[in-house]
Amino acid sequence: MNISIDLLPQRTRSRTGNLPIIPVAGVLSIVAGAVVLTYTFLDTRSNVEALEAQVATQTELLTAVEADFLAMTTGINDYNYVDYFTSMDTLLTNVYKGTIPLKQRIYFHLPEEASVNSYSYVNNGDLSIQITSVSKGDAAVYLHHLLNEQEVSGAEVNTIALEGDEGVTYLSNYTLKLKTLVGEDQ
Question: Which residues cross the membrane (predicted)?
Fold first, then answer.
């Protein structure tokens, strides 16, 4: 047999007209969060659109500045002297023979133990050269080789003189006329 003794007073809680606080607070916080997120999204989207417009404007400005720079630095103008001198060098290379190969051809015919004291070249083809040799015969042989050279149109010995008191070497002065234009030797 079971006997139950309840000594507490019998009260029942009655809920009349009260809203449940936790669910209402949850719904209000969700609505407030949605409003804040919507505002943030719309504000960020307008900022992104403004930045895209600013980037597009700066890109157009950069493209215009780059086009102006390229216009100033291409072709022959006041700002681009490199192209000017390159085109002048190309023109002169196509008109005149190179001076270094001409000089090498002249030096090639020097007799043994002969040396060049002075070498003066003018672009019209006039060349003055002074050499030191050990005999008068070397000066004559050098003149003969110069006259047979393809690049030389005329050569002559101006002077042959003893150099110094010992009389061991001779100083010879030559005047040459060279073919300096491209295609002149044909």
Answer: 21-42
Return the domain boundaries, the chain. Answer: 22-95, 97-178
Q: Is the pTM of this model over 0.85?
A: no
Print pLDDT tens along the chain (186 aa). 678 777 777 776 665 666 678 888 899 999 999 999 999 999 999 999 999 999 999 999 999 999 888 877 776 666 667 777 888 888 877 777 878 888 898 899 898 888 899 999 887 889 999 999 888 888 889 999 999 988 888 899 998 888 877 768 889 999 989 887 776 665
Compute the 3-state secondary structure of the chain and give helix, strand, coil in percent, each to the nearest 5.
50, 20, 30
Pick from 131, 130, 126: nearest CA to 152 = 126
Tell the CATH superfamily of the 97-178 domain: General secretion pathway protein M, EpsM (3.30.1360.100)
CA distance 125 to 118: 16
